[in-house]
Amino acid sequence: MSNILYIILFLIPTSPLTSMELRSPNGRILLDFTLNDGRPGYALTFDGRQVLTRSSLGIRALDSVLLEDRFVIAKLDSSKADETWKPVWGESSEIRNQYSELSVRLRQQGTGFLMVLRFRLFNDGLGFRYEFPQQEELGYFTVTDELTEFNLTGDHTAFWIPGDYDTNEYKYSTGPLSTVDASIGRKAGEIYAKTPIGPNVVQSPLMMKSADGLYINIHEAALLNYPAMNLEIDQESFSLRSHLVPNPVGSKAFLQTPCVTPWRTLIVSDRAEEILTSRIILNLNEPSKIVETGWITPMKYVGIWWELHIGKSTWNYADVANVSLSGTDWDSLRPNGRHGATTERTKRYIDFAAEHGFGGVLVEGWNIGWEDWFGKWKEEVFDFVTPYPDFAVDELQGYAAAQGVKLIMHHETSSSVTNYERRMDEAFGFMKDHGYDAVKTGYVGRIIPRGEFHDGQWMINHYVRVAEKAASYGIMVNAHEPVRPTGLHRTYPNWLACEAARGNEFNAWSSGNPPEHETILPFTRLMGGPMDYTPGIFQITMDYWNPDKTEQVHTTLAKQLALYVTLYSPLQMAADLPESYERFPDAFQFIKDVPVDWDETRILHAEPGDYVVIARKGKGSGSWFLGAITDEERREFRIGLDFLESGREYNVTVYADAVDAHWKRNPMAYTIRTEVLTSKDALNLILAAGGGAAVSIVPTE
């Protein structure tokens, strides 16, 4: 009986205050924080409509550190903020950061442990995180679980990919939360988890739409020193709970006070367009740690890449196996005759880039090791400094510099990350010695250290180490196969782009990306940051390159142009071969003209899984560019041009699907028309099934 009384006494809060409300600056969103029987929780409403019912919060850890109950409120603080800041690059030249903040300092009875719950309520959603002040009683601890809940009000329609610890490269599925079966989703993909994960676990960002028309997006911001968050669905109660990526021993994170977790984010609106205008995730990240940023330059680039995926050439120099970095005489190997990264082929791309105004040329397969790299789980595959015999580094450095073009380095690690970390200084030093200012990193395969995952705490810290190390050398980073981004490009603006999703390359050698894929990505993957999707494929069908290939890009050619506007990145690739662009010079003009850095962005029409129409104004320019894309349905839009400057005339060039265009039956049929319009006019666009339209709007002289 005494033991029962002891527990009851601990659950009785000693503070008279056990709840607190917080309203967004515009008053539309209400946060209700409560402490029930010593357990913290929260609820959320939007315009009086319930978004989340009471949802629990807490952390579990080893050594009897159960930071989930027996709490009392030690201190409450509320404040407001309203500031404007300028990103180094981005979708707009200024970003407003306006929010109401509630800080709840909790003390756990019996242990004295302190935990702070910090809530920031914006006009378009919520961010919150756990904070642990420095304290002797809770110094170093191991997180075994995070108990964050998002208790939804019903069986919302979800746009999801399976929960995974190693890859984001899945097709999206759409349907009610109650029907999610992530195990089927994994098996249906060409890349799927090798580690068993529950059938009801999905990845964030998770996009949802309620039956009463609310759009809800759940993700995270400022993912630092912590594993990525998946979401586990209770398919009866429609509750979502955080599911963190584990380390080799099954725990989630090693923390030492003072420390904080990433922000958990929820963006909500009754308009899909407002989900895409949200800057909550960026605002929850810290300002740039790089003081002098003049060397960070967004750009368009071409490169030896797509020809490797379509099988026209190869990454490897020779057709041999069982090679090693130190034990192979590379000069004595017989070349296979199809190696792509040759000196002459690279010069062809440099010439093309210089002629058409592209800033960079990416070259993959330039360095030794590609003969024996894939799926081998080998410690040492690449050294990042030794070229193949047919790739003349010094000669190409001078050739590119003479034409005002920068070569972009490629560092495929084959996921031997310890090897890469040992060699980073040498690799980045080699880059600077040879005029490379940007690197594309790659993490294909299982991670070394063995037992770590792409999205676990150790790798999260690695990606940041790469960004920091690269910045110290004045190098920009484009990471492929990393964790999905969480707005860290504000803090590390040299981290220009990521892949971290199923990109255009899948159309070259797999079942491809369905037509709806690109209409979902802005609501999911791109919520956390830019994506190097590698658009601009003009030769849609792969049988042009090989009569035996049946693969194709699942868009029209016009939609490939529109992606330069709808899928934002400050680093955009014209991904097709120069030969393809030379066959369609009139369509290629849009790629040459479209900027990669913007002063203003307008989301004109959007519906996840159906269509996206976006207009953007070029940085320091009076010109606007518009992209419109659709799923497998044909659509028509009448676009008002009231975002243009009043009283001016504009030369409008529309790159559109032809009347008989269709993503499957006739994907390469397009038309180009020009007209002179003003802000009082409207633009009529007809999008074919799986199609799109790209528009340049340039002030007349």
Give the SSE map.
Elements: H1 2-11, E1 19-23, E2 29-36, E3 39-46, E4 49-56, E5 59-61, E6 66-67, E7 71-85, E8 95-108, E9 114-122, E10 125-132, E11 140-146, E12 149-151, E13 157-160, E14 173-176, H2 182-188, E15 201-203, E16 206-209, E17 215-221, E18 229-234, E19 239-244, E20 253-256, E21 259-260, E22 263-269, H3 272-277, H4 280-283, E23 299-304, H5 306-309, H6 343-356, E24 360-363, H7 393-402, E25 406-412, H8 417-433, E26 438-442, H9 457-472, E27 476-480, E28 495-498, H10 506-509, H11 517-520, H12 557-566, E29 571-573, H13 578-583, H14 585-593, E30 598-607, E31 611-618, E32 624-630, E33 635-640, E34 650-657, E35 670-677, E36 682-687, E37 692-699
Parallel strand pairs: 23-24, 23-29, 24-25, 25-26, 26-27, 27-28
Antiparallel strand pairs: 1-2, 2-3, 3-4, 5-6, 5-11, 7-8, 8-9, 9-10, 10-21, 10-22, 11-20, 12-19, 13-14, 13-16, 15-18, 16-17, 17-22, 18-19, 30-31, 31-32, 32-37, 33-36, 34-35, 34-37
Reported CATH architecture of the largest domain = Alpha-Beta Barrel
Distance between the termini: 89 Å
CATH topology of the largest domain: TIM Barrel
Poorly predicted runs of 5 or more residues: 1-16
Per DSSP, the total helix count is 14
Shape, principal axes of CA atoms: globular
How many structural domains are formed by the residues? 2
Helix/strand/pairing category:
alpha+beta
Arithmetic mean of pLDDT: 94
Total number of beta strands: 37
Rg calc: 26 Å
CATH class of the largest domain: Alpha Beta
Helix content percent band? 10-25%
Strand content: 25-35%
CATH superfamily of the largest domain: Aldolase class I
For the largest beta-sheet, the strand count, sense and barrel status come to: 10 strands, antiparallel
